[in-house]
Amino acid sequence: MGKEKKKFQSGTATSFISRPSAVKRLQLSLIDFRRLCILKGIYPVQPNSLKKAGKGSKVTKTYYRYKDIQFLAHEPIINKFRAHKVYTRKLKNARVKKEKLRKQILQENEPTYRVDHIVKERYPSFVDAIRDLDDPLALCSLFCTLRRNAKIRNVELIPLCRRLVVEFMNYVITERALRKVFLSIKGIYYQVDIQGQPVTWIVPYAFSYSQPGTVDLKIMSTFADFYTTLLGFINFRLYHSINLHYPPKVALNPADAKAKGSTSYSLKDQEEEEKVSSFAHDLVKAKPMQELDEEGIDEDQELIGGGDLDEEQRQKLRDEEEKLKKLKKLFENCKFFLSREVPRESLTFVIRCFGGSVSWDKVLYIGATYDISNETITHQIVDRPQPDRQYLSRYYIQPQWVYDCVNARMLLPVEDYFPGTVLPPHLSPFVEEKEGEYVPPEKKALMDRQHGVQPSSKAAEEGDDESSEDEGDKDEEENEEEEIIEESGEEDDDDDDDASSSGEDDQQDEGEEKTIREAEKKRLKELKVEEDKSTKEKSKKKRLSVEPGEVKVVDSEFEALKQAGMERRLQEMMIPKKRRWLYKRLMKKKKDTAKESRKLTQRRSNYEAEQKVKRKKQKASAK
Residue 487: which residues within 8 A CB-CB, separation 6 or more? Predict the structure, then answer.
């Protein structure tokens, strides 16, 4: 007879452990335990049965996997946490006893920890680190907007985050890896392609930052400690993969280098950091490398593709590569100048990622490459009424034109983006409409333009609407004039009739009565003839007779749809009972999508009708 199994000695009860028990087992404070879990990537879990995990108790608690806590127990960084705890106790005693020398020695020997081994442990390959790059970039971009006196443990964390983000963005500019941009209420979304992996992050707008009361910066700074180390590793590897000097240095023109009196085309100290963060200059190469011929690279790629790809797939890949090359050279022949009111850093980053050159007023920021008086400038980006002095050799456009061109992958007409005009809607490039979903008219027009079909412009459509409205107004006015003329003629006739004798009026009344009687008689005769014809036709139908047949026109499309519907119903009947609920869910989702599409289409048509009426009222009030 075997041993009796005791309750809660196996299964779910032993697979999970509550947070107080884990803290007690590791002999750490709650703050150190939370920091350790963040660094190691250990997160709470929800057991399927709270009663079994709590050993009979249904009280809601925070649970961790028991194996994860065992994994944390062997982490060497725990010793650093304990040493820091001892350090704070000694420092407090020295401060209380006013031992200045001992306090200074303790502060100089404060125990610190590094998370390099944790980064290598969590990301064994470089591709894994790139896939998880979204959160580090977003958090570091957020820390860049914090004040220098923010309540965080490490004050040097804010400039470190700024430096790492600038280094990564400079790499994106050099590789021209930017693919999508979207301006949202939260901030600016960027998506880049790094070694075949899409990376998307958000950058806040450059507004004054106010810390929300529900956000704990101490916990966020722990994430930032780990993410800065990870981003430093990635930047170092990316820079060396494209033969760039790390940390980045600005490459000067030969003329500027002679003026500086130095042979190395690089600057130093704070000026160099500011020029690197301006994104307007190229970076120094680490070593001169022999460039391979493009033909040899293409041959190598074809050899690597080898016999696995068909001719159609190869052609498709070639077409995509050509489109990508064109996208990377989108702004190559454009020269931009930024006014002081536009977001300089974002526009510079986007323009430089697609081969354009950009500058601004050198009084405002360091790194300007040319002045506003340069005649080779093709586009000047403004966001306020046009200046008094204008150049005929350039376009004055609003900032949205740059972002819309990137998302459309082509240069859009500048007429819709002139200062003072109502801008077209800024469509999100991250939304891809599926079959049956609602597609906005602006998206359809953009897709037509991408396929080479030039849609009618918004101004032309408004002009057509206005012209049609004008024609309708003219017709209404002409009708009103004719009615007024007729009424005036009738009034004149009435005056003449009053002047004539009453005998003439009696004769006219008698003539009108005669004409009415004659018309009634004719109508009665016609009705009788129609009734006779109908009775004759009915009698003929009752008799047996042979008549020539008529050819029945068959609608092939309708018959095909009818046949397809019958086949689909037969297929639905053959679906097993187990899978029928899934089919019903799919069909319900399809119907809901179609219903939502119809709803949005109707809403859009109502909006356009309201805008048309509003324009008509404005035009009438202007007259």
Answer: none
How sure is the predictor about 380, in pLDDT bands with cuts at 50, 70 and 90? very high
Q: Which residues of 421-445 are buried (b: 16+ CB within 10 A; e: fewer)?
A: eeebeeeebeeeeeeeebeeeeeeb
Tokens linked to 375: 């005649």
> Could you tell me the two tokens for 365?
């920021």
Per-position b or e across 127-159, b if 16+ CB within 10 A of its CB: eebbebbeebbbbbbbbbbbeeeeebeeeebbe
Give the up-direction half-sphere exposure of residue 163: CA atoms within 13 A in the CB hemisphere.
Answer: 16
* Nearest CA among 410, 275, 281 for reference residue 358: 281
pLDDT value at 222 more than 70? yes
Tokens of 441: 């008219």
pLDDT at 331: 92
- The total of other beta-carbon atoms located within 10 Å of residue 178's CB is 21
In this structure, the strands spanning 335-338 and 197-203 are unpaired
Residue 209 has a pLDDT of 72
Six token digits for residue 130: 């790139």
The answer to whether the predicted template modeling score (pTM) of the entire model surpasses 0.90 is: no
Place of tokens 């709470």: 44
Could you give the angle at the alpha carbon of 465 between the alpha carbons of 464 and 467, nearest 5°?
A: 60
Looking at the DSSP bridge assignments, the partners of residue 358 are: 336
Question: Rounded to an integer, what distance in angstroms lies between the CA atom of residue 55 and that of residue 68?
Answer: 19
Q: What gap in Å lies between CA 516 and CA 267, rounded to an integer? A: 106
How far, in Å, CA of 59 to CA of 138, rounded?
Answer: 36
- In 3D space, the residue among 191, 594, 199 whose CA is nearest the CA of residue 430 turns out to be 191
Rounded Cα distance between 279 and 358, Å, is 9
- Round to whole Å and give the CA distance between 178 and 571: 47
Q: What's the rounded Cα separation, in Å, for the pair 76 and 78?
A: 5
Going 557 to 563 to 564 to 565, the CA torsion angle's sign is positive
The pLDDT assigned to 465 comes to 54
Q: Write out pLDDT tens, residues 494-549.
A: 444 444 444 444 444 455 555 666 666 666 677 677 777 666 666 655 555 666 77
What does the longest C-alpha to C-alpha distance in the chain come to? 137
Tell me which H or E stretch contains 358: strand 357-360
Beta bridge partners of 396: 380
- Expressed in angstroms, the distance from the first to the final Cα of the chain is 105
Q: Average the pLDDT over each of 232-236, 480-484, 556-560 and give the range with the smallest value.
A: 480-484
For residue 133 the two structure tokens come to 């790059």
Asked if the model's pLDDT at residue 297 lies above 50, the reply is: no
Q: Which of 238, 39, 228, 229 is nearest to 126 (CA)?
A: 238
